[in-house]
Specification:
It is built from no helices and nine strands. The chain has one domain. It has 104 residues and is mainly beta.
């Protein structure tokens, strides 16, 4: 997809502590386009929610990851990072590329 020129920082949980919460994170940067837009989407559990932002991405992410617009030196998601609530991956008409969209 074109126009993915912004840097998006992604944190993926890599280990879960005894409390059931992530204890370590893997941080990566990917290209994307961040839009602070409200859209209704359906979560994995079937409930509907309104997004705070939609992020178009050059790579896959997972529900539960955290995204931040721009670069970050933090090793775990800061309070300004938003959780991925839903992710969709739709092929283009030719089947040569995908539109990847994370709902935050």
């Amino acid at each position: 997809m074109r126009n993915l020129s912004q840097t998006i920082t992604r944190w993926t949980p890599t280990a879960v502590g005894s409390s059931g919460k992530p204890s370590t994170w893997a941080k990566t940067e990917i290209l994307g386009r961040w839009e602070e837009a409200s859209q209704i989407f359906t979560r994995a559990d079937g409930t509907e929610k309104v997004s705070r932002a939609v992020v178009y991405l050059a790579g896959d992410v997972a529900t539960g990851d955290f995204l931040l617009e721009g670069s970050s030196v933090d090793t775990s998601p800061p309070a300004t990072a938003w959780r991925v609530e839903a992710f969709s991956k739709t092929p283009n008409l030719r089947g040569t590329d995908y539109e990847r969209k994370a709902m935050l």
